[in-house]
């Protein structure tokens, strides 16, 4: 298996995402993701960037040119929020912590999805009675 395939699989496992979910989040075809996971091909730069953003890893790490997994989030967490999250985390048991992580991943995945506007439904015309 190639470094890219190994790291893509690792990042997907850490993010708790399937290839189908990753495809939906990124707009990249499931067959492409499957081919990358099987080491048939390596993704082009634009796709690597998209994958890295969706999986919250550094694109260089994903390609194998950087040794450590790093988050790509650029927004610093303020100390107040960080302290509050830490306090809440410590109050949870192991099951609660796992539920919180699962919910957080779902929120991140939902936020990464492009918003689709619902189609407007036209009014149905009523049949005239004679």
TrEMBL record:
Compositionally biased tracts (Basic residues): 117-130
Disordered: region residues: 108-130
Signal peptide span: none
Superkingdom, natural source: Bacteria
InterPro entries: Cro/C1-type_HTH, Lambda_DNA-bd_dom_sf
Keywords associated with the record: DNA-binding, Transcription, Transcription regulation
Keyword Transcription carried by entry: yes
Gene3D superfamilies with a match to the protein in the record: lambda repressor-like DNA-binding domains
Record domain HTH cro/C1-type: where: 8-62
Protein name: Helix-turn-helix domain-containing protein
Natural source organism: Lactiplantibacillus songbeiensis
């Amino acid at each position: 298996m190639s470094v890219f395939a190994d790291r893509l699989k690792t990042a997907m496992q850490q993010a708790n995402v399937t290839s189908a979910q990753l495809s939906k989040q990124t707009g990249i075809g499931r067959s492409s993701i499957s081919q990358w996971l099987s080491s048939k091909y390596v993704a082009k730069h634009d796709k690597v960037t998209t994958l890295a953003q969706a999986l919250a890893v550094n694109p260089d790490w994903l390609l194998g040119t950087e040794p450590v997994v790093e988050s790509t989030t650029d927004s610093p967490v303020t100390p107040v929020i960080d302290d509050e999250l830490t306090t809440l985390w410590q109050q949870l048991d192991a099951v609660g912590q796992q539920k919180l992580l699962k919910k957080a991943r779902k929120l991140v995945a939902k936020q990464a999805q492009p918003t689709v506007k619902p189609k407007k439904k036209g009014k149905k015309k009523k049949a005239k009675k004679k």
